[in-house]
Task: structure prediction
Amino acid sequence: MNRFRNALSVTALALALGLAGCATAPTSTGTSLTGTTSTGNSSSGTSTTSGTAQAAVSLDTLAADTHYDSDDLTWDAASEVAVTLADGASSVTSSSSDAVKVDGDTVTLSAAGTYRLSGSLSDGQVVVAAGEEDVVRIILDSAEISSSTGSPVVVRSANEAIIYLEDGTSNAISDASTYADTAEDAPNAALYSQADLTIAGTGSLNVDGNFNDGISSKDGLVLAAGNVTVNATDDGIVGKDYAVLLDGAYQVTAGDDGFKSDNGEDEGRGWVLINGGTLNVSAADDGIKAFNTLTIAAGVTTVWKSEEGLEAQHIVVTGGTANITANDDGVNASGGSTSAAGGGMGGGGGEAVGPHTVEVTGGSLTINSQGDGLDSNGNASISGGTVVVNGPTNSGNGALDVNGELTVTGGTVAAAGSVGMVVTPGTSSTQSGVQVTLGSAVPAGTVVQIADSAGTVVAAFVTTKATASLVFSSAAITEGQKYTVYTGGTATVSAGLGEGSLDGADQVGTVTAGEYTAGGMGGGGFGPRR
Result:
């Protein structure tokens, strides 16, 4: 247990992700990527490719900068205190159960220890009111806890509370739709903690936040394992100081933000780290949000629905697989006290350049947005991994929108969208690319291919919506060389990008690597020709 941990600053987090790599995190429950074989404007067939290499933050770093300690997840079974939950008849089975008080349908745990809860309370509450140095471990063993007046599980005081989901069990927590106590500092989530909170174990948990949030820690939050489903009226899962996913499978449906950390008051706080496992989010507002830094280092992250998919002042992707769908911006580096307005035009375009950053060094990031795809109110850099943007169809937004400079030094970038606001790699880029502006938008399912002077296809992209522009950069593109652009033919792709064949394709024009049109207007484009 690391009670007196140091705050993890934005700089420290970047160092922890060590662009040179980090030790491996616990094995995550990853999922494979699914490929699509496309012919002309239609797509059919599937194939499977291996997952993206991980660049997880080491457990030593996490132990130093969070409350998490894997030793807290082991204990002497003989020391467990068994608590049977039952309406009007909850009971304790232990020779020394002074730390458990049963008052009607309220069960209070007042000291450090391991408590195994089973049974159900249809209208009750489990309260942790322990000492500030106490670690309280609650094993949910086929337990169901509901309340008609407030939060059914409240950690009022402790050093750390651990919710451990017993293997093979199903558990449930559900709160009231209206609370009797609505004071500003009163509990406002189905699972609410004033102390550091860890969720672990391989069992399942269903959390219904009918009043406000689903799971909320007013300190730090670490999701170490578990198969957890959260449905919340407001925010799904919140860790005020930090929110970390190490492993397990988490499904979140939220009426506001999905998964977030919102401490904007304490330096080095308000950060999110996805370091393994799977996270699936459907949110009415932001999918995943941090006040300071949001990092995806490993695991599989999917935002199925959101207004803005990922939002923070600093967004870092070093590994894992992220698929983001947004009604507005897919990835948005903004916020803080010095937030600049969006709408960059590749090198600023007269817009204010803020201190915000997007940095991709590895992994796979796929974006499908109606607004800007990858948007930074400051600078953005891509040095590794794969970034695929299926951007807007309207000319008021762009697949890439960077107020400062977009620097590309490695990796693969395919950014498709409208022609109104096209941002291309800046002068600091060391990896070349091409800017393709089509004479008119091509429909969803169109194969767009780029071939070198020898006729070898160096890139094949399949559109997911009407597309008029494509910016592509990879190690296969040589500065100053001419490339021919085709539509049609066939392609086998993963996340829209892969290998293609020119059989049956139509040539639509040529482009020169490294020659970009300022302001993103594409030189007027080119029309189809044989």
